[in-house]
Design a protein that fits this description.
Strand order of the largest sheet: 1-2
Radius of gyration: 16 Å
Oligomer: single chain
Strand content: 5-15%
Order of helices and strands: HEEH
Structural class: mainly alpha
């Protein structure tokens, strides 16, 4: 139970950071790859943010799902 709670907390923080990166402007944005609206689009640099977020979420699910020999398993 504690493991899943920690995974949800970390997942929320990582998702918040990814959202901030995707909605903000930064130096290495790169060209627009996918146009969403006239003012917004998915930049080349955003693909790395999304890929990092996916890897982090998969790692959290695997870590939380592993049954260990600890007190909370």
């Amino acid at each position: 139970m504690i493991r899943w709670l920690c995974a949800l907390l970390v997942g929320g923080v990582v998702s918040g950071f990814a959202l901030l990166l995707l909605t903000g402007k930064y130096v290495n944005e790169g060209p627009v790859v996918v146009v969403i609206t006239r003012e917004h689009g998915l930049h080349e640099g955003d693909l790395f943010v999304v890929a990092g977020w996916v890897v982090a979420m998969l790692a959290l699910v695997v870590l939380a799902a592993i049954r260990g020999e600890g007190v909370d398993s």
